[in-house]
């Protein structure tokens, strides 16, 4: 950032004890004079590095000038018990500056409350406000504010000051003020007191005059140390400007832009810099901070809320501003995760390392290991994970990651039908760990078997979508015949978020440009909840690049198609086609887990009704309605359990919660089948044997449907409604917030259990249609190979 061309500067002497006061002074100056282009010079005798960093954040072009204390040590002084015994003289170094035509000095216990830029144009060679008491008819000045030009920034004037200081021919208890008074001997131009309204000029209990330009909090008690009784109104003005850094940036940018719009001159580089500090903040937060400040604790809470909403850039921006203000970074792992989400991997590793030193040892090391894995550094990841397990051997996530790192390839656990001489394909997908989500475990299998049903496949090269799709991975993929991405709800910003794409596939644009083989998105879904949004422009930019590169863009439901097409330009929107999830016709494939399913018989003792409730992103699913929802589920279970075997189908460990809550809150016991532990074959068989599946997860509907089992969807996410609309049976879905949910659920499930033949026939007819649409879309890609 360049310095001003007018050779003007505001100058203050700042030390660590008065630093808080100077920060408030700086903010008041810029908020009151948003058009100033003057330099800011800080004289100091050795500031704490954190304070130096803070000032560089607030104004990056601040000029630091370290004073030489030697001349002032030779001055004769008064009471050496006074804190200002030597430091009070250091402002005199302003006269040793040689780079400016005009200088205005300001004490650090001042606040600027009105325009003062005009002082630079004052015609006097030297101007100041006379001392309030005992001014000797104006001969004695108050040195809190001084205005002078080059005539006094000279070796001659400095020598005069030093001679007076060393001789002691001045009021010793007035320090620098005494030296200047003696040196000028009344040869200065008095300024109106509004430019240096000292605290004692206001009677206790009173308010400063409305036209005051600068308030000077002289005396022993300062506003930032608790203030002084009787001066609450005066000190409230100081607190008005002692706002958070976040509020300062928001307010300054607004004020500077308004000043420029009115025809005023502004420090364009400074305004652009300050605007950049708040560019990632939500507009409503900026507007709020322009009106009312938030304390640091509230800002940190806001950062957490922004992170939970998926606005990671905003969360990082808030934490950055708070870190500068506090002089330390937030060492929490949530901060590290936000940094990783915006692509700042090195910073994320550093913050996680601090967390590991600050009590979260195992969690911090695990996070570092996972981040190293995301970047493709398996060796480093293993070292971090081993460290995490050494500190906490039962750390579940670390144990899971350690097993993943031992796999020979990301897709080592995926079984698929292979035929010698067939295609060699790459498959970028979400490959779950052991005991991961059952639906996500089955999905890659279904994709591969659906391809093998149309064309023989000799080999698959697995690529985990959450790892950076870098040049090395591109080279491996380019050695195969094509790259399939999907399926699943990959258009989702908050499952392992990244800055390269804004969705689950961590692919940089440059890697897309380097692809030399056909790219196909297979049965991908737009997976956002109602009210959830993707923040920033990266997703839209990546989506356009991906669709432009792809030979096939297949989305698994028409709702997703509509959402994605609305983001794309017209020419690219036409490339998006309907391609149902292959789990929805799993039972029609000749190979794979569904092909080994034993056909359902009617000899079961009681029809099985599976219940699946999802708890991830609970605030988005249930909002504040969970107690009412749980009560409805309890009513349903009690109503049908005499005629059916109601069981929980848990796709994840978290899905077991419904059984715990039903017993804890209603005394209702319900058995749990842990699908995530059963293995793909047994779990698919269990769904095939069921009479109906009541599911909240997308795959708790699509998988049983794919093996011919009727479904009832508990709609807490629009994708469930999208699927039912595609199979032309929206009546199979019930919104979880329906007031009569229990009664309608009992009625619908009872009807399905009682009329299996009709419902299974409807499922069978829809499955055939879905497979035809899928094969048609995939066939166009395979024809290219």
From TrEMBL:
Transmembrane segments: none annotated. Residues 437-716 form the Polysaccharide pyruvyl transferase domain. It comes from the Bacteria. InterPro entries: Glyco_trans_8, GNT1/Glycosyltrans_8, Nucleotide-diphossugar_trans, Polysacch_pyruvyl_Trfase. Coiled coil: none annotated. This is Lipopolysaccharide biosynthesis glycosyltransferase.
């Amino acid at each position: 950032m360049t310095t001003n061309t007018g050779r003007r500067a505001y100058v203050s002497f700042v030390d660590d004890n008065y630093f808080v006061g100077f920060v408030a002074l700086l903010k008041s100056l810029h908020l009151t004079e948003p058009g100033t282009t003057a330099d800011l010079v800080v004289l100091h005798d050795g500031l704490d590095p954190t304070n130096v960093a803070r000032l560089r954040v607030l104004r990056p072009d601040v000029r630091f000038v370290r004073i030489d204390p030697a001349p002032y040590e030779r001055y004769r002084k008064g009471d050496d018990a006074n804190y200002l015994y030597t430091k009070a003289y250091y402002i005199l170094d302003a006269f040793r500056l040689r780079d400016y035509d005009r200088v205005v000095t300001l004490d650090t216990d001042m606040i600027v409350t009105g325009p003062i830029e005009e002082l630079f144009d004052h015609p006097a060679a030297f101007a100041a406000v006379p001392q309030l008491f005992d001014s000797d008819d104006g001969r004695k000045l108050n040195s809190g504010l001084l205005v002078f030009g080059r005539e006094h920034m000279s070796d001659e004037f400095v020598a005069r000051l030093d001679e007076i200081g060393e001789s002691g021919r001045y009021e010793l208890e007035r320090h620098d003020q005494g030296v200047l008074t003696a040196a000028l001997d009344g040869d200065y131009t008095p300024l109106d007191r509004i430019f240096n309204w000292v605290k004692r000029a206001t009677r206790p209990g009173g308010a400063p005059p409305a036209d005051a330009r600068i308030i000077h909090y002289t005396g022993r008690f300062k506003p930032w140390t608790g203030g002084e009784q009787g001066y609450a109104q005066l000190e409230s003005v100081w607190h008005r400007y002692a706002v958070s850094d976040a509020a300062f940036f928001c307010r300054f940018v607004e004020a500077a832009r308004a000043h420029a719009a009115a025809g005023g001159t502004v420090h364009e580089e400074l305004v652009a810099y300050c605007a950049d500090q708040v560019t990632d903040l939500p507009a409503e937060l900026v507007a709020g901070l322009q009106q009312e400040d938030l304390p640091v604790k509230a800002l940190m809470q806001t950062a957490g809320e922004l992170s939970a909403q998926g606005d990671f850039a905003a969360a990082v921006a808030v934490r950055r501003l708070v870190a500068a203000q506090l002089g330390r970074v937030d060492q929490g792992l949530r901060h590290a995760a936000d940094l990783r989400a915006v692509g700042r991997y090195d910073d994320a590793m550093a913050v996680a390392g601090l967390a590991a030193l600050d009590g979260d040892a195992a969690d911090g090391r695990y996070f570092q290991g996972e981040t190293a894995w995301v970047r493709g550094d398996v060796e480093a990841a293993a070292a971090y994970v081993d460290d995490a397990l050494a500190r906490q051997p039962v750390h579940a996530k670390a144990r899971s990651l350690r097993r993943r790192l031992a796999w020979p390839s990301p897709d080592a656990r995926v079984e698929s039908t292979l035929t010698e001489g067939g295609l060699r394909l790459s498959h970028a997908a979400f490959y779950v760990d052991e005991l991961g989500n059952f639906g996500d475990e089955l999905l890659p299998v279904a994709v591969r078997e659906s391809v093998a049903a149309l064309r023989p496949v000799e080999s698959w090269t697995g690529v985990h979508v959450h790892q950076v799709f870098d040049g090395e991975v591109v080279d491996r993929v380019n050695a195969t015949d094509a790259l399939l991405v999907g399926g699943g709800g990959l258009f989702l910003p908050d499952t392992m978020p990244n800055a390269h794409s804004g969705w689950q596939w961590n692919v940089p644009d440059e890697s897309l440009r380097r692809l030399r083989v056909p790219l196909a998105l297979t049965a991908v879904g737009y997976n956002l909840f109602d009210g959830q949004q993707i923040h920033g422009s990266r997703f839209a930019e990546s989506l356009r690049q991906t669709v432009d590169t792809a030979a096939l863009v297949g989305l698994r439901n028409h709702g997703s198609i509509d959402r994605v097409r609305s983001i794309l330009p017209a020419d690219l929107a036409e490339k998006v086609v309907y391609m149902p999830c292959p789990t929805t016709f799993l039972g029609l494939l000749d190979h794979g887990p569904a092909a080994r399913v034993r056909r359902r018989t009617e000899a079961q003792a009681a029809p099985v009704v599976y219940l699946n409730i999802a708890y991830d992103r609970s605030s988005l699913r249930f909002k504040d309605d969970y107690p009412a929802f749980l009560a409805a589920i309890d009513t349903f279970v009690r109503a049908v359990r005499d005629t059916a075997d109601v069981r929980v189908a848990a796709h994840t460990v978290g899905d077991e919660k419904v059984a715990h809550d039903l017993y804890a809150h209603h005394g209702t016991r319900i058995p749990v089948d842990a699908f995530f532990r059963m293995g793909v074959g047994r779990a698919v068989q269990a769904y095939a044997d069921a009479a109906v599946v009541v599911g909240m997860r997308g795959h708790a509907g699509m998988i049983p449907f794919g093996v011919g089992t009727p479904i009832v969807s508990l709609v807490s996410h629009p994708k469930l409604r999208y699927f039912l609309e595609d199979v032309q049976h929206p009546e199979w879905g019930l919104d979880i917030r329906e007031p009569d949910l229990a009664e309608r659920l009992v009625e619908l499930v009872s009807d399905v259990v009682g009329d299996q033949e009709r419902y299974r026939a409807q499922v069978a007819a829809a499955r055939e249609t879905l497979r035809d649409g899928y094969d048609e879309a995939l066939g166009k890609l395979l024809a290219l190979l």
